[in-house]
Write a structure and sequence with these properties.
The chain is of the alpha/beta class. The strands form two sheets. A six-stranded parallel beta sheet has the order 7-6-5-8-9-10, sandwiched between helices. Strands 1, 2, 3, 4 and 11 form a five-stranded mixed beta sheet that branches. Keywords: NADP, Oxidoreductase, Porphyrin biosynthesis.
Length: about 425
């Protein structure tokens, strides 16, 4: 299930985001009927994908992923819709900043995490890797990521609308990817001095050394004092609790842009004279202009997604048909083997069979199986292409006596997602 900035508020995204994505995916994988699971959590979305035999199993498994989020902020997608959504996410079409680059790395991280946790299987792995492939194509073959390409740079652009950054002092909370991008954007915007505050000071030092302006690294305990020196504060830590509360900002004269999830800055600080606080929702004003510039590029990416989506679905459908056909042939081979043994035993009892005669009987049995199964094989492949699982199930019941119809109530390997956009 996913909750994102498109329909959900910042509070709802925070509510849906699991504190531990690995633990959340593991819990999903343990649910009845779930074969695979992946959780993708970023600053403006929380998504869960599961692979189940039936849509009902998928819906049941995802039912309590984001229980506190209102229904209007949750979108549930079927197998094909979930695959397309993954491609759109990795391509940056679902991002607050259209075409931003960070999401593709976050998708890769989710893949690796699920692989390490043992919740990633062949269906989700193929879908996710295809999504990454599409995302990379979108960025190399189109200009979808030209201009403002990150939440960090958008935050700096928003701050620059309200404060003069030329020769100013700026504070960045967090030394992760988003904090690093914000620090670079601030340096490019002309600030004179940069303070990077992070729980782990060596990481802050690394960011400070990465920029071309005078920069200092401090621990988060020094963030409040640094905020009083700063004209602008960009907050992007992974802290579960606010880093700066309202009382600590009293008396400061600064513009704060909080792009963290959960939020780093107490929203009540916005009531303090001299303090301006923006959150992720406020970035819409900045990103709208970028969206307009990139709309034509987005249409190219949509066409790319259409083609890649069709190819991936065809691959899944071929695999689905091949699984059914394999089961049908295995059942036929078992029956052929039993009947061939009986026939050869009887023929041996009627007189000695030479090797040529034995090979003729075996070839006859092979030919009968091939000719009998050729038409249903064609029908199964056509049925898979049309998502006609009823025909596949019926054929397996007829031709494979060991087949259990209860195992095939829905198309195998369905990817279910509930997405709150």
């Amino acid at each position: 299930m996913s909750v994102s900035h498109t329909l959900a508020t910042v509070e709802e995204v925070e509510s849906a985001a699991p504190a531990d994505a690995s633990a959340a995916a593991t819990r999903l994988a343990a649910r009845d009927g779930v074969a695979e699971s992946v959780v993708l959590a970023t600053c403006n979305r929380a998504e869960a994908y599961v692979v189940t035999d039936t849509a009902a199993d998928g819906a049941a498994a995802l039912s309590d992923f984001a229980p506190e989020v209102r229904e209007g902020a949750v979108t549930r997608l079927d197998h094909e819709g979930a695959i397309r959504h993954l491609m759109r996410v990795a391509s940056g079409l679902e991002s607050l900043v259209l075409g931003e680059d960070q999401i593709i790395g976050q998708v890769k991280d989710a893949i690796e995490r699920a692989r390490e946790d043992g919740t990633l299987g062949p269906v989700l792995e193929e879908a996710l890797l295809k999504a990454v492939h599409v995302g990379e194509r979108a960025r190399t073959e189109t200009a979808i990521n030209e201009g403002t390409v990150s939440m960090g740079s958008a935050a700096v652009e928003l701050a620059a609308r309200e404060a003069d950054l030329d020769e100013a002092t700026a504070l960045v909370l967090g030394a992760g990817e988003m904090g690093t991008l914000a620090a670079r954007a601030l340096a490019g915007a002309g600030v004179e001095r940069l303070i990077v505050a992070n729980r782990t000071v060596p990481n802050a030092e690394h960011v400070a050394q990465d920029v071309s302006v005078d920069a200092d690294a401090v621990g988060l305990e020094a963030a409040a004092d640094a905020a009083h020196e700063a004209t602008v504060v960009v907050a992007a830590t992974g802290s579960p609790d606010p880093v700066l509360d309202a009382a600590e900002l009293r008396g400061a004269d600064t513009v704060c842009v909080d792009i963290a999830r959960p939020r780093d800055i107490d929203p009540e600080a916005a009531d303090i004279d001299g303090v301006v606080v923006h959150d992720i929702d406020d970035l819409e004003a900045v990103t709208d202009a970028a969206h307009e510039r990139r709309r034509a590029e987005a249409r190219q990416v949509e066409a790319m997604i259409d083609a890649e989506h069709e190819r991936l679905l065809s691959s899944f459908k071929r695999a689905r048909a091949d699984e059914a056909i394999r089961g049908m042939y295995e059942g036929a081979e078992r029956m052929k083997g039993r009947e061939l043994d009986r026939a050869l035993t009887k023929l041996d009892a009627q007189g000695d069979l030479n090797e040529d005669q034995r090979e003729t009987v075996e070839a006859l049995a092979d030919s009968l199986v091939s000719h009998l199964l050729a038409p249903p094989t064609r029908s199964l492949r056509e049925a898979a292409g049309e998502d006609d699982w009823t025909t596949i199930r019926t054929a397996m019941e007829l031709f494979d006596p060991t087949f259990d119809a209860s195992d095939a109530e829905g198309a195998p390997g369905a990817v279910d997602e509930a997405a709150g956009e």
